[in-house]
Amino acid sequence: MLATINHAFGTPRRHFRLADSTNEQARELAIAGAPSGMVVTAGEQTAGRGRRGRQWSAPAGKALLASAILSPLGAEHVLLPLAVPLAVCDAVESLAPLECRIKWPNDVWSDERKLAGVLIEAQPPSWAVIGIGLNVSIAPDEFPTDLRHPAASVGHGVGTEDALDAVCEQLDEWVGAEHERVLAEFEKRDALRGREVRWTGAGGVTEAGAGVAQGIDDRGNLVVLSSEGERLSLGSGEVQLISVGSVE
Ligand code: BTN
């Protein structure tokens, strides 16, 4: 498949010291016709959004809170949910001596701890807002105690502006990258392969179940071998992973 036009993510940029949600601000800008590549950042959010209606919070100035506009949204972006965490992994590894992996569909982990989350909100074919929350310098005791997964920061003296520059550079590299490249790189960074997972249906046809993760199919679905011996492809809109076990 052909690569799409090269973006220059990060230009223009609008920064808020305090915003409700950078995704919300970027969404409004996208609807108003803001250019592709524009990025909205905030030092702090009062209503940061996470996946599945969860809240996303971070202490002021210690996380990269950024939302990039991609417009229009074409068939070449079908793997965007995998391409964005790949960009975040490469950005983090360019800044600090860390090794990143991805917990499907798009959590970035280092050392079994969550470094970053991605929330993509889209109105195809017009636009997508790529929201990235990357923990940059949050101290271990500053994370909420009730997190679903343990969290960590990039650390190593990295600042949020360095993180933004690196992430924008890598979004240029990965958004619209060839599908084969995205799938091959995701496979290398797949944190779930060979691990036991349990999932719950999210209102769709797929029922709750358990099995062992086998990788990703060419549409970005998680392939699992269920405990009943059935090979299933789980879509991120249909299922929610509720637990991840140890490596087999
Ligand atoms: C997740 O649940 O893991 C995704 C979290 C995404 C959070 C980021 S912070 C910047 C952007 N603005 C939001 O309101 N959410 C995303």
Describe this structure as you would to a colleague.
It is built from four helices and twelve strands, in the order βαββαββββααβββββ. Helices cover 21% and strands 33% of the residues. The protein starts with 12 loop residues before the first strand and ends with a strand. The chain has helices at 22-31, 80-95, 160-174, 179-189, and strands at residues 13-19, 39-45, 63-70, 100-103, 107-110, 113-123, 127-135, 195-201, 209-216, 222-226, 231-234, 239-247. The chain is globular and about 50 Å long. It has a seven-stranded mixed sheet, sandwiched between helices. A five-stranded antiparallel sheet has the order 11-10-9-8-12. Strand 5 (107-110) and strand 6 form a beta hairpin. It is α+β, with helices and mostly antiparallel strands and 248 residues long. Residues 21-23, 45, 48-51, 54, 56, 65-67, 107, 117-119, 131-133 line the site of biotin.
Categorize the overall geometry: globular
Question: So how many helices?
Answer: 4
Radius of gyration in whole Å, from Cα?
A: 17 Å
Q: Into which percent range does the helicity of residues fall? A: 10-25%
**H/E series, N to C?**
EHEEHEEEEHHEEEEE
The computed structural class is: alpha+beta
State the low-pLDDT regions, or none: none
The largest pleated sheet is described as: 7 strands, mixed
Strand order of the largest sheet: 1-2-3-7-6-5-4
Could you report the average pLDDT, rounded to the nearest whole number?
Answer: 92
The N- and C-terminal alpha carbons lie at a distance of 34 Å
Quaternary structure: single chain
